[in-house]
Structure formats: C-alpha cells, structure tokens
Write a structure and sequence with these properties.
five-stranded antiparallel beta sheet, Beta-Lactamase, alpha+beta, 12 strands, elongated
C-alpha cells in the first residue's frame, strides 16, 4: 500500500541521514553536536517544505509541482489528486445545478424554496412572473412579507399543508393562483404556485350554465305537468292514451326532480360555508328523517331503525345537513329489495360524530364504488330509472360534506350490503366546543 511504501521510504532516508551523522560525529569526537546540528538542519528543511506546501495549496494549487526527489513529493501528489477530484466533482455539481435550474425554469408552475423561518432560498422564473419575486434581490427575504395576503400568512403559520389555498396573484389580481406547499429535507419547504385562472373561469361557466339551464327548464316542465293533470281529470276511454299520459307524467316528474337536484347542486357549489355557523339540532332532524323514511317504505317488506345519540348537535347549514342525510337514507330505501333491513345511526366518534347508513342489501361491485359520487353515474340504468333516481343524490352529499370539511366513506361487500358514512369533526360539534370553552374560561 502507498502508506507502507511512504513510511518505508521516509524511514530509510532518516536512517541513512542519522547513520551519516553518527559516523561523522564519531570520527570528529563531537557526536552530540553533529546530531544536534543535523537535526536542526533537517527541521529547517522540512519547515521550508511545509511553507512551500502551504503556499502552493492556498495561492497556486493549479500550478504543477516540480518534483525534487524528496518525501514531500508524495504529499504534493496526494493533495493534487484530491484537488483534481474535488474540482471534477465541483464542475459536475455546477453542471447538475445548472441543469436543475434550467429544468425548474421550464416548469409551467412557480416554484419557491424556503426554510423554516420562511426565508426564500431560491425561486424559478415562473415564480418571479406569477408571484412578483425578484431574483437574487429577494433571496433571504421572508415569503409572507412579499406575498401580503392574510389567508396566505395564516396558511404558512398553520404548517398544515394537506390542503391547497387559492389567492390572487400579487402581480395581477385577475390571475388566480393555486398554491400547494410540500415539506422536504430538514426544515425546508417547496411552494408550488399554479395559474388556475382559466380552469376557474371554465368551472364558473359550467356552474352558471347548469344553473341557468336548470332554471329555464323548470317553467316548461311545470306547464307540461299542468296540462298532463288536465288529461288525468278528463277520463279517456282509450287505454293506450291513458298509458301514454301516465308515462309522460312519470317522466315529467322525474325530469322535474332532476332539475330541482341540479339547482340544489348549483346552489351548493356557489355557497360559502365560511359565513354560515348555526346550530343544527340533529335529534330533531333525524326524527323528521325517520318519519319520511317510514312513509317512503310504505307497505314494502322492509325494516328501518334509527340509533340517535342525544345532545350530539353540530354547527353548520341545517338544510344542507338534512339533504345529505336524507339522500343517503332514501338511496338505501330505494335500492334495497324487499326483506332488507336498514340501520341509521348518529353517534360519537373519536374524531367527532359519525352518521352512518348500513343495509344488508345486494351490495355494490368494487368497480363502481369510487365513481358513485360522480354526477349522473348509475350502476344500472334501468334500476335507477324505475326507482326514480337521477344520479345526482350522492353528488349533492359530496358537496354538502365538502362544505362541512368532511368526506363520504363508502364500503360495500357484494351480496352482503353497503355502508355509507361521514364524520363531522370535533371543531363543529357543540358539546366539544362548549367543553373547550369552559376549560378556557377556567384557565
């Protein structure tokens, strides 16, 4: 190995040098003086070589060292090899960094890197264009000082980045930005800002179109229903005419139900739950729902039971909550065959309160479960039509729960039944809020 060879070379040279000193000292009878002078000269020589090495490393490391057949040549060679490797790695890192920045600049989204103190570390060209950042002048500046929106500052301070936040661009308020923060490394964060102005405009146009069309359809459908009622009053001896009028009345009623649900869905999409914070008496709501469900079952061979925990009320929109619960119960009644049993419950949950509708019906195939909340999605067209379904009920439930910071959970086993449930978190449960308020008052 190199270390052993170097040690042997140095040991051999030192042994030869001191052997010569010993011989000279013995011949001159001045052994101590000769050894001292020789050692001193050796020290001066090595000190000079050390000085040259330090000067070469710090002042001119790229200049090739001229070998002088000393032990120091190995040190020069080792240092030079390390420096060449470092320069090579440095060039590679610089090239990689340049490629990374070129790639980041090519992204259609704005990217900002910052630390735990919200100080900007780096940003790409799209971030400079969308967020009005200046590089490198804004390096080290606080992100919340440059993007001055209260909701954005609260979003940064909360450190809960599982949701995105929409804010206008600081450069142009007509540009809507969707911002998502990703945590990476040690106390480092990545802000990804995307221009969703066009998508938002298209979504607004779609909502307005659905709302307008639904509203315009309501009047002609009402007129059609009125004239069909006149046909009902005028008894016709023609059985085929009666059959046609009955079919038209059924389809008109179904279309009117669909229009009403579309209007309700559009209203939900335009609603802002941030301004609504009223107490909902869930016991009264579910009492009314139980009466409606029993009426809907009628003479069918089906049982339904309600398990409602007393005093478990929430803050939210009363009409929306009733609509979501009613849709889930109505779907169970409509799509379960005779002989089925349905269990409805509203009880405490570790994260808040849970509403659940469970049945022992035919169940749903797994391929359909993830698509049930899509608009107009039906498992079986014929079954939905015969039961009066429009394919909008679960879409309404989805939007209601979104307005209440909740999600619909669907579990189904084919041949064994379904379970539809959602959890209202503790921040909306009245008893939980009052309990925390009492603790704050006592402290």
């Amino acid at each position: 190995m190199l270390n052993n060879q170097l040690f042997k070379q140095v040991a051999a040279k030192l042994s030869g040098f001191y052997l010569c000193l010993f011989i000279i000292g013995s011949l001159s009878s001045q052994l101590f003086l000769v050894l001292f002078v020789g050692t001193f000269l050796l020290f001066i020589f090595n000190l000079k070589q050390f000085h040259k090495l330090v000067y070469w490393v710090w002042q001119n490391p790229q200049k090739k060292h001229q070998a002088n057949n000393s032990s120091w040549d190995n040190i020069y060679y080792g240092v030079d090899s390390i420096q060449r490797g470092n320069r090579r790695r440095r060039r590679q890192l610089i090239n990689n960094l340049g490629e990374f920045r070129q790639g980041a600049d090519a992204l259609p989204d704005g990217v900002v890197m910052y630390n735990q103190f919200n100080n900007i570390l780096w940003c790409n060209s799209q971030a400079r264009e969308l967020l009005g950042l200046k590089w490198p002048m804004d390096q080290g500046q606080r992100l919340d000082n440059l993007i001055r929106y209260p909701q954005f500052s609260e979003y940064l301070a909360a450190r809960e980045y599982d949701q995105v936040i929409l804010i206008p661009s600081p450069v142009d308020e007509d540009i809507l930005l969707e911002n998502r923060i990703i945590e990476y490394g040690q106390d480092q964060y990545l802000l990804v800002s995307r221009d969703v102005t066009r998508l938002n405009q298209l979504e607004e146009m779609r909502r307005e179109f659905v709302a307008n069309v639904s509203h315009e359809l309501k009047t002609p459908l009402t007129v059609l229903q009125g004239y069909l009622e006149l046909f009902d009053e005028a008894e016709s001896p023609n059985n085929s005419s009666n059959k046609a009028v009955k079919a038209m009345r059924q389809q008109t009623t179904r279309m009117q139900s669909m229009v009403e649900q579309l209007l309700a869905l559009s209203k939900l999409e335009f609603s802002n739950m941030a301004s609504k914070h009223t107490m909902v008496n869930m016991h009264e709501q579910l009492d009314m729902l139980e009466s409606d469900a029993i009426s809907l079952i009628g003479e069918r061979d089906m049982t339904i039971s309600f398990d409602v925990e007393q005093g478990l009320d929430l803050y939210g929109d009363e009409a929306q909550i009733y609509s979501a619960c009613a849709n889930l119960v109505t779907n169970a009644v409509r799509y379960c065959p005779d002989g089925s049993s349905i269990q409805v419950s509203w009880n405490h949950h570790p994260h808040g309160a849970q509403f659940m509708v469970k049945d022992n019906g035919p169940g749903i195939e797994p391929i359909h479960v993830n698509r049930l909340t899509e608009r107009f999605y039906r498992i079986e067209q014929s079954r939905s039509s015969s039961s009066g379904g429009t394919g909008l009920g679960l879409a309404i439930v989805k939007h209601v729960l979104k307005n209440h910071q909740s999600n619909l959970t669907i579990k189904s086993t084919l041949g064994k039944g379904c379970r539809f449930s959602f959890i209202i978190n503790n921040e909306r449960i009245v008893s939980f809020i009052n309990k925390n308020k009492q603790k704050d008052d006592m402290s």
